[in-house]
Automatic annotation (TrEMBL):
InterPro entries: Cas12f1-like_TNB (IPR010095), PcRGLX/YetA-like (IPR045793), PcRGLX/YetA_2nd (IPR048330). Residues 1-124 form the PcRGLX/YetA-like central beta-sandwich domain. GO terms for molecular function: DNA binding. Keywords: DNA-binding. Residues 133-197 form the Cas12f1-like TNB domain. This is Putative transposase DNA-binding domain-containing protein. The lineage of its organism: Bacteria, Bacillati, Actinomycetota, Actinomycetes, Kitasatosporales. It comes from the Bacteria.
Length: 219
């Protein structure tokens, strides 16, 4: 038995809605996975030979599902041409200095569930949240130094013009360069991103917990 759910709509950014899409979800009785087909129709304005217009640098679909297994038993699988899959574990245990052994390596590379952790060496297991730990270290260091610490959302900072505020994927034609399609401002993409992060930090309205200076020690 198969059930199909179809969702139609338009991609929206700000007040503009364009790029009509159709998402079809295929569910099969008894299956733990489902199939998704995402179709778009380009209805933008693009004139040949002109830099102005609507450009699409990338488009994707993001969704969340409940995860019940341990991080090392969660796998991302990407299907390509043919019958194979590119499989990557969320928390890798292979390629480490303290190797868990060929048997455990083979199981994870195949995308299968690992045996009981008590049966293999976990001394070299990678942290599942390295970036979270890095942020915590920054916050702790700033607190000890008496410096306010705040987080700034870096989304699209390398695609936003610091002068006009125009944001678009076409402003960043490649990895290293930035050029605003509206005003022509150009420079290294990383430098432009840093300027935008600074602007956001200055205008952010956040609650910052400042460390309390220690008072005089009673005699």
């Amino acid at each position: 038995m198969r059930a199909v759910v179809r969702i139609d709509g338009k991609h929206r950014k700000g007040c503009r809605a364009w790029l009509p899409f159709s998402v079809r979800l295929y569910f099969y009785a008894g299956a733990e996975s489902f199939r998704m087909v995402h179709t778009i129709t380009y209805d933008g304005d693009q004139t040949a030979g002109h830099e102005s217009g609507d450009f699409v640098r990338g488009l994707g679909v993001r969704f969340s599902v409940p995860m019940r297994d341990q991080a090392y038993d969660r796998h991302i699988r990407v299907a390509g041409e043919g019958k194979g899959f590119l499989t990557e574990a969320v928390k890798g245990i292979t390629g480490l200095r303290r190797d868990p052994g060929a048997k455990i390596r083979t199981v994870q590379v195949k995308g299968e569930k690992l045996p009981d952790p008590a049966t293999w060496d976990q001394r070299g297991t990678l942290s599942a949240w390295p970036f979270l730990q890095l942020g915590q270290h920054f916050a702790d260091k700033a607190r000890r130094a008496g410096v306010p610490f705040l987080e700034v959302d870096p989304a699209h900072t390398s695609q936003r013009c610091p002068r006009l505020g125009h944001t678009g994927g076409a402003n960043r034609p490649d990895r290293d360069h930035f050029r605003c399609r509206r005003c022509g401002l150009a420079g290294p993409a990383d430098l432009v991103a840093g300027v935008n992060v600074r602007h956001r930090a200055r205008s952010a309205r956040v609650f910052v917990t400042m460390p309390v200076a220690p008072g005089p020690t009673p005699a």
